[in-house]
Structures
1.
Amino acid sequence: MTAGNMDKKRGIYIHMPFCVKKCRYCAFLSFDAEGSPRKEYTDALEKEIKLRAAQEKKNGTDKPVNTIYIGGGTPSVMDISSMSEMIKTVRRSFEVDPDAEFTMEANPATLGRKDGVMLAKLQAYKFMGINRFSMGVQSMDNDRLHFLGRIHTAENVARDMDMIRRKGFDNVNLDLMFSVPGESGDDALSDLEKILEFGPEHISCYSLQIEEGTPFGEMAEAGELTEVPDEEDRETYHRICRRLEDAGYEHYEISNFAKKGDDSDSPSPYRSCHNSLYWNMDEYIGLGLGASGFINGIRYKNTSDLNEYLSALSEGRLPIAEEHRNTAFDNISEAVFTGLRRREGISYEDAVRAYLEADDGEKKAPAESCDFRNFFWDIFAEAKEEAMGYAGRGLLIIDNEGLKLTEHGIDISNSIMSLFV
Ligand code: SF4
């Protein structure tokens, strides 16, 4: 067994923390766009981009970037000229692969009111190099959208998709939310049918989580909102999975489905390359308020305080709030935790390579004759019996190559993954 130097991919995540209006369930880091210092924010972001790139060059750790993802918040509420300047700064500061996947999240009803305005905005995004959109559709039922506090209607989604296709964008993800209080499984499936009519290349499906500190969280505490029971939630999830598989989508991650390509035996060409970085223990540079990153063996998180973010950058400092060099055990544990999210699971080899890659003087050295499987179970000796128990109950597949969750194992994925933490 050799430690190997895996050819790590690298991505950039940029956070835009502004939205037209806060949704009632939202616990993401976002503020109302109106009255927020958006221009100051993108100016600060440009400084952060340059500082990060300069640091990488100085350390000799700069590498080509394979994916860019602008998330939020709602990046499509940002002023086009500020966005364009910010992206130019990224391209001048980092070596971006010419074939990089470049995603921007865009919420329905934020691309413009008039056809001409929308088409011009989409053209500008095209010039910037954006080649993938991720749209927060959530539902195609106007009453449910209103209940969720979304600003858009089903008609907005149809119009935005029409414009996006007219501009030639051929890689689009649509988000679907299910288990909204009051919604039945049939309602969720009916939303899915309407989403399928748009022929998106990728669909992400999530059940609604009611979070503390949100209006929904307060309503639940006051007894005004009842969560969909777990059993019903899981039944709807499996119905969604089956319908998407019938419709020609590859279920490649717990919540993610990609349209199959011409060769249906090969991985779909529409898997999200950027999100795959997270599940593959690849590197990503997080930029912007509250953004997280993982580069050169270090996990970091930027401050979530907007004033602190702006003042750090005005003083020429990176706005980092937390930083941690991963130990070898952190690496293998994260590799298993995130790798189990993929339907193909995690191989012993990839997990052990993550372990051996860590810059950790305490890590165990494998014996010459030791194979990846034995080394893996040596590290997780305490978890082995319980893991075998899950395998015996048909929830986890453990073979000579590695481990993966079964369809029903997904329902208790957190319990299984926590064995390896
Ligand atoms: S659009 Fe997204 S980020 Fe913005 S408030 Fe709604 S859920 Fe939160």
2.
Amino acid sequence: MAEDDFVEAIGEGELKEGSMKLVNVAGRGILLVRHGAEVYGVSNRCPHMGCSLANGKLKEYIVTCPCHGWSFDVRSGEYQKAKQIKLLTYECKIQDGKIYVKIPDDI
Ligand code: FES
């Protein structure tokens, strides 16, 4: 896979404004969040104890883990209380009515 490969995830209509959705792209669980024309992608697994963030709550750009309440900014992946702890982030784009996620080679 080339380094800059974008992989088709879902149709644009499947991710509503201000909502989040768990997708599986290239064997990875990735949580997509949409705000307007922007789509953000982060790893779905909470770095605390591995819970699925897709079962948590989203407010603006902040997703809160359902298990113990850790919260992350989907734009940077940063844990709000200790910014050195991060979710993996994935570049996303909307093109031709579909949402694509960039899957790097090295992670
Ligand atoms: S597993 Fe997410 S806060 Fe504990």
